[in-house]
Design brief:
By secondary structure, the protein is mainly alpha-helical. The protein folds into two domains: 17-64; 85-335, MetI-like fold, CATH 1.10.3720. Helices cover 68% and strands 4% of the residues. The protein has helices at residues 3-10, 16-29, 33-64, 84-92, 94-125, 132-140, 147-158, 165-169, 200-226, 230-238, 243-254, 256-271, 275-279, 289-297, 305-335; strands at 67-68, 79-80, 183-187, 196-199. The strands form two sheets. It has a two-stranded antiparallel sheet.
Length: 336
């Protein structure tokens, strides 16, 4: 046995993640005191702000969901009620909760469809079409606007019953896009005493949200497509793949990091939707979880902090599932 063989046999195996952690620790110990200080500031300040502005309110909301308080009385008047608020929102207020959840999930599926359109536009614009810069600017323009501004624009310019562009080009009688809460379709749920369905005004709102979301996703996929190795496409072409086969088997798998980010952004965007609905004055039939939280705290008959916090916790739990999935995939790929 040679000396090299003896060393190889006696050296303990170190897994790649542990080796990476040791390398990062060694790099940190070699830094000067000044570099360590500024590194601590750059990491500590954002972490502190994130903790104070995100997690402290989230934990406070969770705690308040088990209490009864009208947000006007002193803090000493807060009364613990256990799971009573959750019992109320799933039974007494189920006619509010389940239609709002249904609308949120309709938004999830709709925005995923819009994400697919954004990916298609990005793929076409990546072909260096003539006037591509102009098309990118047109598609991306709504992204620089907030959802509240988008809501105001569509309410006054597109949806208006008297002056709206959609009613101008519509050949029939004017349509009340915002106020018409009749259902396009509905169906019964076994454990509910009322049907769930999609209202006409919420369907109109989906169009306005698509106007903004498609451009946002298009830009993300354009950035991802620039990072795809052209040699992969050339190899697929040499192997006889057509355009669709090349995209499905080569380009789309190479976009996995972008796909994960887009999926998480799309779901969270759908679950936290509120601005554009508030801009339309929250018409009946367009309720989502965000409007239930706001109405419980500030709206007519508001001051029900416990009920509003319970709605907020349900929304938080829905978002956390996708956030945890994203963080798990991100760090797994980083370690690999």
């Amino acid at each position: 046995m040679t000396v090299t063989d003896h060393i190889d046999d006696t050296t303990p195996a170190v897994d790649p993640p542990a080796r990476g952690r040791r390398r990062r620790r060694r790099r940190y110990t070699t830094l000067s005191k000044g570099d360590r200080f500024w590194l601590g500031v750059m990491v500590g300040v954002p972490a502190f702000l994130h903790l104070i502005l995100v997690w402290v309110p989230a934990l406070a909301t969770t705690a308040l969901s088990f209490t009864e308080w009208d947000n006007l009385a002193p803090l000493t008047d807060i009364r613990a009620v256990g799971f009573q608020n959750y019992w109320f929102i799933f039974t007494v207020f189920d006619t509010n909760l389940f239609p709002a959840l249904f609308n949120n999930f309709i938004l999830v599926f709709w925005l995923f469809f819009c994400s697919a359109i954004g990916m298609l536009l990005a793929y076409l614009l990546d072909k260096n079409l003539r006037g591509g810069r102009v098309y990118q600017s047109i598609y991306y323009f709504p992204v620089v606007l907030s959802l509240a501004v988008v809501g105001f624009i569509w309410k006054s310019t597109m949806f208006s019953r008297d002056r709206g562009l959609l009613n101008v080009i519509w050949p029939g009688e004017p349509i009340d896009f915002v106020g018409d809460g009749t259902k396009i379709f509905q169906f019964d749920i076994p454990f509910l005493d009322f049907p769930l369905g999609l209202s006409r005004n919420f369907a109109a709102l989906l169009i306005a949200m698509a106007w903004r979301h498609i451009g946002y996703i298009m830009v993300m996929y354009l950035a991802g497509l620039k990072g795809v190795d052209p040699a992969l496409r050339e190899a697929a072409s040499i192997d006889g793949c057509n355009e669709w086969q090349s995209f499905r088997n080569v380009v789309f798998p190479a976009l996995k990091p972008i796909n994960v980010v887009v999926a998480v952004i799309t779901v969270i965007e759908a679950l936290r939707a509120y601005d554009i609905i508030a801009a339309l004055n929250e018409p009946r039939g367009t309720e989502v979880m965000g409007t239930l939280v706001t109405k419980s705290l500030l709206g007519e008959g508001g001051g029900r902090v416990g009920i509003g916090s319970a709605y907020g916790v349900v929304l938080l739990l829905l978002c956390l599932g996708f956030i945890i999935w994203y963080v798990y995939n991100h760090y797994r790929e980083t370690e690999q």
